[in-house]
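lol forgot to send this yesterday, sorry. C-alpha cells for the thing we talked abt
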C-alpha cells in the first residue's frame, strides 16, 4: 500500500478523481467520512491509499483554507468577478456582494470589467482600487487586460463568477482555449449538455487550477453564503482602519452619530457606492436569527 498526497479535481458517480504529480487516480472515499458527515470536495488536498490491486481510497482530508456550498468547492485562492460595462450595465451592488463573499472566506477578489472596447469603466476601476481591491479592464476585441489576468491566476486555484451576459465564457475562452467553452453553455466535449447535471471540475493551467463552475452567480451567494450583520463590516477592506474610531463601540456604520466610517465616506476616502452596498446588505440581514441562516 502506497500513500500519496494530491488534489481532488472531479467528483462523479461516487468516484473521486485525485491528481498527484500529473497522474489522476480514481478513488473511493472511506465510510468514515459519511459517518462524520464530512464530505470531500473538489479542491480538497487529500491523502490517498494506492494498493497494488483494487480501488484507491481517500484516507484523509488535509485542513481546508475555505469552502463554498454552491459551487461545492474547497481551497479557493482567487475569485474573478466578471461584470460587463454595457449590456448588461455595471451593477456595483452585485459586484460588492460577490466581493464580500470572497473576503469572508479568505479568497482574493478580482473584479474584471468586460466589453471595455464599447465603453470606458475608469470611474469604476478607481472605486475598487480606492477600496484596495484589484480591478482590471478587459476587452475581447483588443485583448487588453488578458495578460494581467493571467498573472493573477498563476499558481492559484481560481474560479470565475458573473451573471448572464457579462462575457464570462468569452473571457474563459481567451484564457483557456483548450476548455472549448461555448458562449452561454459548456460544450458537449466536456460531457455537459445543456440539460445534464453539471458539477465542478478543476483544470490545470498557469501553474495552478481553474474551476469549471457552471452558472456560478450572485444567486448562489444569496442563498448559501449569507454573512451575519456583525461580520459584514470586516468584509469591506477599506473600513478596517476606521472601525475602532467610531464614537460608539456598537456602531453599525449605517447612520450612527460619530461613525468614523461614515465620516470617511463624506470625506471621499471611502467610495459612496461601496458604503451604499454595505448599508443595503446590512439591512437585508440585520433581522435574521442564527437559525435562519443556511448551514455552512
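and heres what i got for the seq, position by position
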Amino acid at each position: 500500500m502506497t500513500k500519496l498526497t494530491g488534489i481532488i479535481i472531479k467528483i462523479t458517480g461516487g468516484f473521486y478523481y485525485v491528481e498527484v504529480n500529473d497522474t489522476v487516480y480514481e478513488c473511493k472515499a472511506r465510510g468514515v467520512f459519511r459517518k462524520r458527515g464530512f464530505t470531500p470536495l473538489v479542491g480538497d488536498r487529500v491523502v490517498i491509499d494506492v494498493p497494488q490491486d483494487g480501488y484507491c481510497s481517500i484516507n484523509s482530508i488535509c485542513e481546508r483554507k475555505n469552502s463554498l456550498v454552491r459551487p461545492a468547492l474547497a481551497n479557493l485562492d482567487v475569485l474573478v468577478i466578471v461584470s460587463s460595462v454595457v449590456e448588461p450595465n455595471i451593477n456595483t451592488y452585485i459586484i460588492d456582494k460577490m466581493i464580500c463573499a470572497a473576503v469572508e472566506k479568505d479568497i482574493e477578489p478580482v473584479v474584471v470589467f468586460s466589453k471595455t472596447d464599447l465603453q470606458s469603466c475608469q470611474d469604476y476601476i478607481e472605486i475598487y482600487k480606492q477600496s484596495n481591491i484589484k480591478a482590471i479592464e478587459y476587452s475581447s476585441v483588443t485583448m487588453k487586460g488578458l495578460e494581467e489576468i493571467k498573472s493573477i491566476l498563476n499558481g492559484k486555484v481560481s474560479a470565475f463568477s458573473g451573471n448572464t451576459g457579462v462575457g464570462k465564457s468569452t473571457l474563459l475562452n481567451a484564457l483557456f482555449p483548450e476548455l472549448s467553452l461555448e458562449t452561454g453553455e459548456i460544450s458537449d466535449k466536456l460531457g455537459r449538455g445543456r440539460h445534464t447535471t453539471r458539477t465542478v471540475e478543476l483544470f490545470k493551467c498557469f501553474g495552478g487550477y481553474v474551476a469549471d463552475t457552471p452558472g456560478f452567480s450572485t444567486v448562489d451567494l444569496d442563498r448559501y453564503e449569507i454573512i451575519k450583520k456583525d461580520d459584514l463590516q470586516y468584509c469591506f477592506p477599506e473600513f478596517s482602519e476606521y472601525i475602532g474610531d467610531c464614537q460608539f463601540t456598537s456602531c453599525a456604520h449605517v447612520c450612527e452619530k460619530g461613525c468614523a466610517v461614515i465620516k470617511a465616506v463624506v470625506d471621499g476616502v471611502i467610495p459612496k457606492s461601496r458604503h451604499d452596498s454595505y448599508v443595503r446588505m446590512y439591512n437585508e440581514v440585520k433581522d435574521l436569527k442564527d437559525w435562519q441562516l443556511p448551514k455552512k
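The chain is about 25% helix and 25% strand. anyway ping me if u want another try
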